[in-house]
Recover the amino acids of this structure.
């Protein structure tokens, strides 16, 4: 427990508001967790799965109206509308508190208030931050215990400080008309009502570690980014770290846990996972950029995860995992989802809770956004630096998206400022692209569109300022595109583990070991510098996906100009200059 006056006063205030029957402080101990699991099983909130095949694993179903993050009902409640910027929904904080307190009032009646002290990042790390979440859901408690560091040590690390984030979650009636996910960056506060779905209620994740933390990073001179972090070990045993941002559905978790192809494994290359979703980065005493993964687990999309697509993610789900909205295989009391294997269960319950025969039913067994909440320690390739207090030094930042034609397999930006331009123009095409038609382009700067807690023009400015501080110690910035399509709509590049061949080029560039070809958009590899050994892929095809077509890029530049208009006066002039230089280079 704690004697921190700011914490105790806030808990009292919230208690008076939501009016719980009792209050339980979570300490994360095994006894307490076991007791809460048993309670949740007794109430039907969780189902216990096969203890031999999936030890300490549980299944949960959300309400059918509550299966994903709700961007339309997510608000940044800054005092000035201008400070939320053109890409966020905004609500006046006074009005928001009044409305939310109205909804929350007495909503814990007949329920228990759980007080969860949690650390984002290793407890006590100078890069970590502390939060307290109040919830009336055991499911939330058990997920938070996996996804963050929860223990009494968090209170000790906090001491008397007022530097902590307040998170209030109220399930209420899961009424979608009254569902709100509100961030108050100026107050370090999050209020989430009428949802029980992960991304809306595990307040450490998107709400704190990205929306609130991006604002804190801006004010305090560090960065909170929607990035995976991975370590690449070479045959000499040297490990270099990269951070990478991709919009959803571009395989972030797969890249974070990839297995290099056999040829490179035999040579001694290895990949180590530090994080799959979020990176907090600060300039270290040595002037380099150091990163931690603030999370302690993976909240991954289940469908499509299998031994081949992501062996390490699947292995991570084999113990101590909570599955949400997947199918329940009644024959052996395990779980199943589309893409797990080619053998769907016949005797099962689908994600909505109805009997389901996977062999004959037209319906899906698992919701497309069904999830596993798995402890990071389960991951076979978890980095030895995962618990490091100082984090890992970042050599390269990689942006990417799903583009059928435009972007080459990989290119390096000309410098940091040019890299910020590349990130600010990041885009992905809707999966219509997969069937051959060029899909609809959605611009998603740095993959932060739904997660930036302040004006994106200020966010770009902050990136530029960080680059100035980092100077020649700044990570090099790259862009990748695994998703180029041929004229029949097939992916050209094999992807998955073979992406390691591209990562090796990126590391070689960071170390000045390899030349490149300068193009109007940046530096592209010479085809012979991407190692294709043991891969059935000819160099002419590789050349075709390294090409930068001037006409396509002239169209792209025009679209970026359109995209930039939304940021108004806050768009940094440096980025306008970058765009103008690109246009001139394409002439
Ligand atoms: C996620 C997301 O769940 O980005 O990580 O939507
Ligand atoms: Mn994410």
């Amino acid at each position: 427990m704690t004697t921190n006056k700011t914490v105790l006063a806030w808990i009292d205030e919230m208690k008076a508001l939501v009016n719980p029957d009792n209050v339980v402080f979570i300490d994360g101990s095994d006894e307490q967790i076991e007791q809460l699991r048993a309670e949740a099983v007794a109430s039907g909130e969780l189902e216990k799965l096969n203890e031999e095949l999936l030890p300490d694993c549980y299944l949960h179903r959300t309400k059918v109206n509550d299966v994903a993050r709700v961007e339309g009902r997510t608000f940044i409640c800054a005092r000035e509308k201008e400070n939320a910027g053109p890409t966020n929904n905004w609500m006046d904080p006074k009005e928001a508190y009044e409305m939310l307190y109205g909804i929350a009032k007495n909503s814990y009646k007949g329920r228990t208030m759980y007080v969860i002290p949690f650390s984002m990042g290793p407890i006590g790390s100078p890069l970590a931050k502390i939060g307290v979440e109040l919830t009336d859901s055991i499911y939330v408690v058990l997920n938070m215990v996996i996804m963050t560091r929860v223990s009494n040590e968090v209170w000790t690390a906090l001491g008397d400080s007022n530097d902590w984030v307040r998170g209030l979650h109220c399930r209420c009636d899961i009424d979608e008309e009254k569902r709100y996910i509100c961030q108050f960056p100026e107050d370090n506060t999050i209020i989430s009502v009428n949802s029980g779905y992960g991304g809306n209620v595990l307040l450490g994740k998107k709400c704190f570690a990205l929306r609130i933390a991006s604002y804190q990073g801006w004010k305090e001179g560090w960065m909170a980014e929607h990035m995976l972090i991975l370590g690449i070990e070479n045959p000499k045993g040297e490990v270099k770290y990269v951070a990478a941002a991709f919009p959803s559905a571009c395989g972030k978790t797969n890249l974070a846990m990839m297995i290099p192809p056999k040829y490179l494994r035999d040579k001694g290359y290895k990949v180590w996972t530090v994080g799959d979703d979020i990176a907090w980065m600060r300039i270290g005493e040595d002037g380099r950029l150091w990163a931690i993964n603030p999370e302690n687990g993976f909240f991954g999309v289940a469908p499509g995860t299998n031994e081949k697509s992501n062996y390490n993610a699947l292995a991570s789900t084999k113990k101590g995992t909570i599955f949400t909205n997947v199918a329940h295989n009644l024959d052996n009391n395990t779980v199943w989802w589309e893409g797990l294997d080619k053998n769907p269960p016949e005797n099962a319950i689908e994600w909505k809770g109805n009997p389901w025969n996977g062999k004959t039913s037209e319906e899906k067994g698992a919701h497309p956004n069904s999830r596993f909440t798995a402890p990071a320690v389960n991951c076979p390739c978890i980095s030895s630096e995962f618990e490091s207090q100082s984090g890992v030094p970042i050599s390269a930042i990689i942006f990417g998206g799903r583009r059928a034609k435009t972007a080459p397999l990989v290119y390096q930006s000309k410098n940091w400022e040019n890299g910020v331009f590349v990130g600010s123009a990041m885009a992905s095409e809707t999966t219509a692209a997969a069937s051959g038609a060029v899909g609809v382009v959605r611009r998603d700067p740095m993959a932060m569109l739904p997660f930036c807690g302040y004006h994106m023009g200020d966010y770009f400015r902050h990136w530029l300022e960080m680059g100035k501080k980092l100077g020649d110690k700044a990570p090099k910035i790259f862009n990748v595109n695994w998703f180029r399509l041929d004229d029949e709509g097939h992916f050209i590049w094999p992807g998955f583990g073979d992406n390691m061949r591209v990562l090796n080029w990126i590391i070689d560039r960071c170390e000045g070991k390899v030349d490149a070809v300068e193009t109007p958009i940046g530096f592209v590899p010479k085809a012979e510098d991407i190692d294709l050994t043991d891969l059935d892929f000819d160099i002419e095809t590789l050349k075709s996906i390294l090409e930068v077509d001037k006409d396509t890029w002239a169209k792209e530049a025009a679209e970026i100009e359109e995209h930039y208009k939304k940021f108004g006066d806050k768009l940094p002039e440096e980025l306008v200059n970058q765009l103008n230089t690109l246009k001139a280079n394409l002439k």
Q: What stands out?
A: Residues 69, 199, 248, 277 surround oxalic acid (ligand 1) (CB under 6 Å).
